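Final report, Chapter 2: Outcomes

The project's central promise was a pipeline that accepts a single protein chain and returns its three-dimensional structure in a standardized token representation, suitable for archiving and comparison. That pipeline is now operational. To close this chapter, we reproduce one record exactly as it appears in the project archive, with the input sequence first and the structure output second.
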Amino acid sequence: MNTGQAIHLLPQTNQLRALHSIIRNKHATQDDFVFYSDQIFRLLLETGTNLLPFTEHQVTTPVGETYNGLKLDVKLCAVSVIRAGESMETELRSMHWGMPMGKILIQRDKQTKLPKLFYSNLPEDINERHVLLLEPMLATGGSALSAIEVLIQAGVKEKNIIFINLLTSPEGLERVLDVYPKLRVVTSSIEQRLNEHAFMIPGIGDFGDRYFGTADSGAK
């Protein structure tokens, strides 16, 4: 698959593959799942932040010399897709203390099988900000498209949205980027495919259940 400029896949280092081996294991404990998922989140969030505009910024060091550094040049916020997206918030707060965070709740309608928006709460000035959209799983792309639409309708520019994602399917990527080609996606793995039940292969199971300990879904 040609990732292009819109997709930023983490380097598939031995360390990253080792982390994936732990969290993909259906026998992983919840503590291990959370601990090692958070390590991958840190890599994803650093990569996403690195895509933002920076400007030159000089500071004076304790020995009286000048360091020619950088500082973030935009207003930034994060929006998590409830519930799995909330798993990324703690790691993000450790990097950007005090950052405004919004919430979006989207669930699949039992009758139509289509994603339905139930709730959103966004920073009042979100139209002036770059947005880190937090959602670990991109499978069919339906929920992602709905969440992005909420941001667009709130005045966020498409090019200012960075989608932070743990696992993504080729089908989901293609669907989302066909609609929003200026979106940037940061992911740690592009999976092989979706199966007949819309689970990613080789996959990880239900991420939210495994992270928050609400069900034993590791075998899915």
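Archive annotation: The CA atoms of residues 67 and 94 lie 24 Å apart.
This record, like all others produced under the grant, will remain available to the consortium after the project formally closes.
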